[in-house]
Amino acid sequence: MSKTIVVGMSGGVDSAVTALLLKQQGYDVIGLFMKNWEDEDNDEYCSSRQDLLDAVSVADTIGIPIEAVNFASEYKERVFSYFLSEYQAGRTPNPDILCNSEIKFKAFLDHAIELGADTIATGHYAQVREIDGKFQLLKASDESKDQSYFLYRLNQRQLSKAMFPLGKLLKSQVRAIAEQHGLPNHAKRDSTGICFIGERPFREFLNRYLPTRPGEMHTPEGKVVGLHIGLSFYTLGQRQGLGIGGTKEASGKPWFVAGKDMANNRLIVVQGHDHPALLAPSLTALDCHWISGTAPELGHSYGAKTRYRQADAPCHFNQLVDKRCEIDFVEAQWAVTPGQSVVIYDAEVCLGGAIIEQGGPIMEQRPT
Q1: How many angstroms separate the CA atoms of 251 and 330, rounded?
Q2: Which of 46, 99, 288, 315 is catalytic?
C-alpha cells in the first residue's frame, strides 16, 4: 500500500507544486486548505476566499481530493492572543513561528492523522534528515528562500511526520514546474507579511485591537524630539512613520527607534543607522527550544539569525537557568528586537532558538 500524505494547500504555487511532486512520486495525496482567520472575511485585504478557489482549482488539475478545515478558533486562542499581549507589552512577536508549531504542525497534523495520513507535507523551503533515530531540521538548498527560521520550534514528533519536498529546489524551478504542468496559479505572486493582516496597513490593523497611548519621543540623553501614538505601534529599528525630520546637529540623519521606556511611556529614538544604541554585541533570550532536546555546546562557534533572511552571524552560546540563554556575537548586531526569535545554526542544521528578551546596550541607554 502506498503512503498517504496530507498536503497543506494554501492556494499558492509552493504548496501546489508540493502536492504535484508527491502525486508524481506515487503517494496517495489529499489536499487540506486551512482557514485560520475569519474576522475580516468581507475585508478588501482578505484573500482567503480566492486562496480557497485557487487551491481547489489546483487539486482538480492534479487529480487529488481536497478538504477545507477551519482552525480559526484555535488560531485566535493559541496565536493571536499571544500576538496582542506581546505588542501590548511593548515587544514585537513573530506569529508565523507560533502558527507553525501550534497550528500547521499541531492542529493540522492531528486532523491529518485522523484522516488516515502517514505524514504531512507543506510548501516550506526547508529539509528534514534522520540520523540514528533523531530528526534534524536543515536549511533549504535555496538559502534566499530558506524558511527554517520559522520552523525552529518544531519537536521530534512533528519533524518525524513532516515532509518538505521543495527543500532542494530553487524558487525559479518551482514556478517552472508549475507552469510546465499547467497549474492555474503558476504565476500567482507570493503572499507577504503576517497571514491575518495581509496587505492592509499594519498600524491601522493593530489600532482595532489595542488602544493608543500617546507619549514623548526622547533621545538617550533625555531630549524630547517628538510625540508617539503608543509604544505598541513601534518596533526597534523602525525608521518610517516617526513623524520627525533631521536636525542640523546630526547633519539631517534619519531617526530610528532604539528602545522603549515602558514605565514612563517614552519612545527612545536616535539619529543614524549605525548609532551605538542600535548595535547589540550580545542578547539574552527566553523560552529556549532545542529540536533535538539538547542545548548547543558551550564554547562552540555557531551561527545565529535574529531576523528572517539575515545572514548567519557568528556567535557563542551560554545556557542560563529557567530556559534562558545568552548569545555573544563576534560582531554587534543591528536592532536586536525583544519578542523576535534568535535561531541558532550549526552549519546547515537548525538547532532551535529562543525569544529575544533584550540585546546589547539598548536597555542601558533608556532615560530614568
Answers
A1: 30
A2: 99
Q: What is the CATH number of the domain that holds 28?
A: 3.40.50.620
CATH at residue 216 = 2.30.30.280
Candidate list 195, 288, 315, 350, residue with the active-site label: 195
Tens digits of per-residue pLDDT, 254-282? 999 999 999 999 999 999 999 999 999 99
Residues 298 and 257 grouped into a single domain: no
Report strand pairing: 66-70 vs 28-35.
parallel
User: Is residue 349, in this structure, part of any structural domain at all?
Assistant: yes
List, edge to edge, every strand of the sheet that includes 4-8.
66-70, 28-35, 4-8, 119-121, 162-163
The lowest-confidence range among 42-51, 100-109, 222-231 is 42-51
Q: Is the pLDDT of residue 325 over 50?
A: yes
Same-domain check for residues 147 and 261: no
C-alpha cell at 119: 505524514
* 283 and 340 in a common domain: yes
Range of the domain at 249: 211-271
Whether 288 is a known active-site residue: answer no
Q: Is 325 a catalytic residue?
A: no
pLDDT per position as a tens digit, 67-107: 999 999 999 999 999 999 999 999 999 999 999 999 999 99
